[in-house]
Automatic annotation (TrEMBL):
This is Head-to-tail stopper. It comes from the Bacteria.
Length: 112
């Protein structure tokens, strides 16, 4: 699959434990190649005390990656948060198994 490179920002357990016996995590930035990037059309601006703009995109991977709901990605120079988590992209009606999909979003305040 052709595509582009995105950066996956996630936490990984080290071999160390803290003073309570819990794993110590470190932040890792992993590049992932051959990712298809699709915009979700229709950014929305919400009217609250502070107007915000929410931008969403979808990433398609050629295999399961292990993406969690607390992870983030940098795509085309912009950092996004993961919405939910990674989902299986197979149909279930055949052996077709192209990989996984994840939806991302970014919320920004709009100057008024």
């Amino acid at each position: 699959m052709a595509g582009e490179t995105v950066t996956w920002h996630h936490r990984v357990a080290t071999a160390e434990l803290d003073r309570y016996g819990k794993p110590v995590f470190e932040l890792i930035d992993d590049p992932i190649n051959s990712v298809l990037v699709a915009p979700n059309l229709g950014d929305e601006v919400t009217g609250t005390d502070a107007d915000t703009s929410s931008t969403r995109i979808t990433l398609y991977f050629n295999e399961q990656v292990g993406i969690g709901a607390d992870d983030q990605f940098t795509v085309r120079g912009t950092r996004y948060e993961v919405n939910g988590g990674e989902a299986d992209w197979s149909s279930g009606f055949s052996n077709w198994d192209p990989g996984s999909v994840v939806q991302l979003s970014r919320t920004e305040y709009v100057d008024g």
